[in-house]
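User: I'm putting together notes for a lab meeting next week and I want to include a structural view of one of the chains we've been expressing. I don't have a solved structure, so I'd like a prediction I can at least talk through. The sequence is below, exactly as it appears in our construct file.
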Amino acid sequence: MCRNSNRVADNLVQGDGTRRVPALGKPTLAGASVTAEVVGVTQGPKLVVQKLRRRKTLRRRTGHRQMFTKVRINKIAVG
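Assistant: Thanks for the context. Below is the predicted structure for the 79-residue chain, given as C-alpha cells.
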C-alpha cells in the first residue's frame, strides 16, 4: 500500500493522446514515462453478497468494500 505524498514513476505507457493521430505502443511506447503522486486511500462502494436456500432457514448476508488508491498525475513525458 502506498502512503500519501509518495512519488510513483512508471515507464509502461501504452498510448499517447497528444498528437492528432494517437501513438499506440505494442505493448508500450519507448521513451515515454508517467510521474504520479499518491493523494490518499479510500474505500469503494459496499457490495452486498446474499446466500439463500429455499425452504430452509439459511439466509447469509455479507459485505465487502474494496480499497482504492487515489493518484494525481504530475507529469507525462513522451520522448
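A couple of points you could mention at the meeting. The radius of gyration is 21 Å. The mean pLDDT is 80.

User: Perfect, that's what I needed.
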